[in-house]
Amino acid sequence: MLHRYPKRVTFLLLAGLALLIAYPAWGPALFGESSAFFMEKLTLMLIFALFAVSLDLLVGILGLVSLGHALFFGLGAYTLAMASPDFSPASLWWMLPLVMLVTGAVAAIVGVLVLRTKGIFFIMTTLAFGQMLFYTVSTSSMTGGTDGVFIMFRPSLAMGETPLVDLDNPLTFFYFCLALLVAVYLILRALTRSHFGQVLDGIHDNEHRMQALGYATTGYKLIAFVVSAMIAGVAGMLAAMQYGFANPAQLGWHHSGEVLMMVILGGMGTIFGPILGAFAYELLLYFYEHLTNHWPILMGMTIIVAVLVLPRGIAGLLLDPPGRKTSLFGPWSAARDAQQAERVASASQASAGKSAGEVSS
Amino acid sequence: MSSMLSTRGLTRSFGGLLAVNDVDFQVERGEIHAILGPNGAGKSTLINLLSGEIPPTRGEIVYRGSAIQGKKAHQVARLGIGRSHQKTNIFPRLTCLQNCQLAARIHHGGVIGSWRSRKRAKEVDERALAALDTCGLVPRAHTLSSGMSYGEQRQLQIAMVLATQPQLMLLDEPMAGMGREETDQVADLLKRLSSDYTIVLIEHDMDSVFRLADRITVMVDGCVLESGSTDSIRASDSVRDVYLGRHDSGQDDASDDIDDRPQRREVAP
Q1: What Rg, from alpha-carbon coordinates, does chain B have?
Q2: ipTM attached to this prediction
Q3: What is the pTM of this model?
Q4: I need a labelling partner for A356 at 20 to 30 A (CA). Which of A170, A338, B72, B179 fits?
Q5: How much is the pLDDT for B113?
Q6: What distances in angstroms separate CA B175 from CA B87, B136, B164, B187, B203, one per listed residue?
Q7: DSSP code of residue B258
Q8: Interface membership of A353 toward B (CB under 8 Å)
Q9: For A73, phi and psi rounded to 5 degrees?
């Protein structure tokens, strides 16, 4: 069954979750004074994980590589920044739906246009839409130009007058992001395993065939695109809450590329992989940034090596652990196996054709 | 017999090439109608036009009394015209049964219906299993379709078409590349199906075509050369010329694979 993974994956994810929940217990002991700083780092990783998961729905599940996904991330951030009142905190009860509504509506319009294309053209049109908003936002005085917009008050989550949780507290906000990530993960897991998800897989494998079967594939693709954009928008909103501002860089193509690397590093099409990818990417980034000023070189090399050695990303490592029938050089042996299988298939086909010819002549 | 499907003046051009040229074509309810013709005669283009995968340049297609030209592939499929492709076209990551379930679910509403369909899962399962049963694939139900033999994959393709509950099946070379034994299996299958379904068949295996078909339409260079009963096609001089070249022995010998006979006479449009 597709999108059903071995128990060790669930086990590892639950272990990771437990580790994050227990951060207040081990964080200060491990990092001492900089424990608060690392918790903010972790919060950002959770936000990027949410963003990466949303992109995986497009890239991994649907098979459409987008280079403009930061459009929705940035849109979420700007929606929060623009809609927040200047002298009091906004309520998250209506801010969250607003962000989803705005990103969803924009995604529906953009989706109708870009989903007519495939492959390189899809990459280019998503890139174009992303850059369109990037330049609009970074040159408009209404959105603060390249400086962006500051958010004076983080939105609050209250029931009437009594605050439910204090999102200004970094630890509470960390748990809030974690809870959202878990919720989104569970939703997407259910979605990919549903019939709807199976149709998306079918479109990924062979859209033409799905149409011939009787599926109106555009509708399915559009819904997946909108859902993906809404999750990205929420991630962007959380990022803006964390940073305290919305900035054009959040919706530039550089950012789209970065999240794409997280998805690839983590393992496309697995939903849980990109979460691991986001953490791995941010950890590597932190590590390399402290090592040298030329960290992009190291990062680039890491991604290249990762793609060569782990074509299915970190998730692939969990799904097919090395030493189990595959060698360390998995991709090469896999390619060799495929070649061999093809030779066998073509040979048997040729012999089948020959025998048919013999009988009929 | 009422006409299941008919075309009038159906034409499709690709640039300057008239792939299908002014084709009048009729399929009667309950028959197996074979389309013959050399490579490049426009057979597959005709099927693609009928199934809505490409729109016609001109002409009309009438299916059960209503015009369907210009409808999209998925709309045509939902009207009950199921098709299989020349190239093996299954979903390799799914099992045999899942492939058929995917096909069986098309009638469960659109995108929204796909959420509700869990309730009707049993119905879908039954339909998918019935399709597999007809094609003799039940033992392979839980095999990953990428792991099946080529012949089985071709049969799965037919099972998928069946699972969509079509009235009319358009089968593009269902026996291509198969050994004799498998070819016979598929021929038997089609014979069995013909009591319940109307079938349009493109096939190069002449033995099977003459054994199975009720009527045959021969296409050359995008045009219909001749259309009629199996016997009339067998007896037709012009068909024999196109297929077998000049052939003076009185006995018909149509069992050669036409691909082995590249020579064909150009027919003036």
Answers
A1: 19
A2: 0.81
A3: 0.84
A4: A338
A5: 54
A6: 11, 16, 20, 8, 7
A7: G
A8: yes
A9: -60, -50
What CA–CA distance (Å, rounded) separates B65 from B67? Answer: 7
Q: Which H or E run includes A128?
A: helix A119-139
d(CA A66, CA A73): 13
Distance from CA of B194 to the nearest CA of A (A): 20
Architecture in CATH of B1-80+169-269: 3-Layer(aba) Sandwich (3.40)
Chain B residue closest in CA terms to A194:
B115
Give residue B63's Cα distance to chain centre: 15
User: CB–CB of B170/A325 below 8 Å?
Assistant: no
Chain position carrying tokens 């919720």: A183
Is-contact B134 B77, C-beta < 8 A?
no
Query: In sequence order, what are the residues at sequence separation of 6 or more whose Cβ sits closer than 8 angstroms to the Cβ of residue A155?
Result: A80, A84, A89, A90, A91, A92, A95, A167, A241
Is the Cβ pair B111, A212 closer than 8 Å?
no
Q: Which helix (H) or strand (E) holds A150?
A: strand A149-150
Residues of A in contact with B256 (CB under 8 A): 360-361
Digits of tens for pLDDT over chain B (269 positions)?
Answer: 468 999 999 999 998 889 999 999 999 999 999 999 888 889 999 999 999 999 999 999 999 999 999 899 999 999 999 999 888 889 998 899 999 999 998 877 555 555 555 567 788 888 999 999 999 999 999 999 988 988 899 999 999 999 999 999 999 998 888 888 888 889 999 999 998 999 999 988 888 888 899 999 999 999 999 899 988 988 888 888 877 665 444 444 444 444 444 444 444 44
Nearest to B91 among A206, A353, A360 (CB): A206
The first and second tokens of residue B15, run together, are: 């640039």
Closest CA to B48 of B105, B10, B79: B10
Write down the domain spans for chain B. 1-80+169-269, 89-165
Q: What are the helix and strand counts (H, E) for chain A?
A: 14, 4
